[in-house]
């Protein structure tokens, strides 16, 4: 596998992981005592959003997922043939 392909696949895993870990640990104003929502802000907006922590968590999850992906790529544990649940398609003889 080329290093550019590895980088692109890792980037996809990172973006997916960022969306997965984004809501972890967020608190809304209803969940925090004494926090008043300022005028013009949504009531559902988080009060403790930390993008650096989200990026760190996404990086850890992406590294683990990419390591599993690459191990499967190298060892061929699960192949395309393993994912074919419907069997081989029928062969049609067109008489050519």
List the keywords.
mainly alpha, 2 helices, 46% helix, 96 residues
What's the SSE pattern? HH
- List low-confidence stretches: none
Radius of gyration: 23 Å
Q: Identify the overall geometry.
A: elongated
Range of strand content: under 5%
Number of continuous helical runs: 2
- Note the gap between the termini: 39 Å
- How many domains? The number is 1
Q: What is the quaternary state of this protein? A: single chain
Helix content: 40-55%
- Indicate the structural class: mainly alpha
Describe the main β-sheet briefly.
none
Strand tally: 0
Question: How would you sum up this structure, described in words?
Answer:
The chain has 96 residues and is mostly helical. The chain has one domain. The chain has two helices and no strands. It has helices at 3-21, 51-75. Helix 1 (3-21) packs across helix 2 (51-75). It is elongated, with a radius of gyration of 23 Å.
């Amino acid at each position: 596998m080329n290093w550019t392909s590895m980088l692109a696949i890792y980037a996809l895993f990172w973006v997916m992981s960022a969306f997965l870990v984004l809501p972890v640990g967020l608190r809304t104003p209803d969940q925090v005592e004494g926090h008043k929502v300022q005028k013009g802000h949504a009531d559902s907006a988080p009060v403790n959003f930390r993008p650096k922590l989200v990026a760190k968590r996404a990086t850890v999850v992406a590294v683990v997922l990419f390591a599993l992906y690459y191990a499967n790529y190298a060892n061929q544990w699960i192949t395309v043939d393993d994912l074919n649940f419907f069997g081989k398609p029928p062969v049609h003889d067109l008489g050519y």
